[in-house]
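Predict structure. Chain length: 252.
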Amino acid sequence: MNSILPLRQALLGHRLYVGFNNLEQLQKFMEHHVFAVWDFMSLLKALQRGITCVEVPWVPVGEARLRRLVNEIVLGEESDLNENGEAISHFELYLQAMRETGASTQRIERFLADLRSGAGLETALAASGLPECVSGFVRHTFGIIARGKLHEIAAAFTYGREDLIPEMFGAMVANLDQENSGRLATLRYYLQRHIELDGDHHGAMGQEMVKLLCGQDSKKQEEAEIAAREALQARLTLWDGIADLTEFRPVS
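Prediction complete.
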């Protein structure tokens, strides 16, 4: 997908990363970014629901290779191991990292509580009081899910994923961790796991899923590429919005 390369480069070189100076800025970033971590899981579960059988009585559905790919990714994302060898989802690991750094989890926890109580997505978004850049990003994700085209969902999941956080961010987090007596240890572990899984393993598996779901259908291939571009553009809009809200400016 050569057409997505300029958007990927714009994201990897975004001013958001080079503007970090202190722990307070990191906290503000995490309070917004956590919603992208959450809806990433919703994309994944939409794929699992569409590719495998999640009903009772069970019947075999679709291609076994696709089932294995999505289930293996779910295993890593929904029930990875923390530093103590205990099962935890990457989302819950991120919440733990937020609490350690002192970032507020109030908005995301209220949002989840509303969803658990039966509120619809729009109601929960409105109640959380999120800035438009964040709520718009979530709406875009669920718009892709609502269209119900698995090749589009897989493309958005694979090419708009968390490997868009560059190495410089990890180095910045390591420096801040040293300055703040290890308060960023869980965040550093979270980033390490994403590098190991997304960069070395899940990324390639996601690309294989897209290929299998598209097959030789040129229309599906085109739709998948458009979905990938739209997902990257949505992430770029989110990054721009967070940078503006938190007044990130490149360090001169």
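Summary: The first strand starts at residue 80 and ends at 81.
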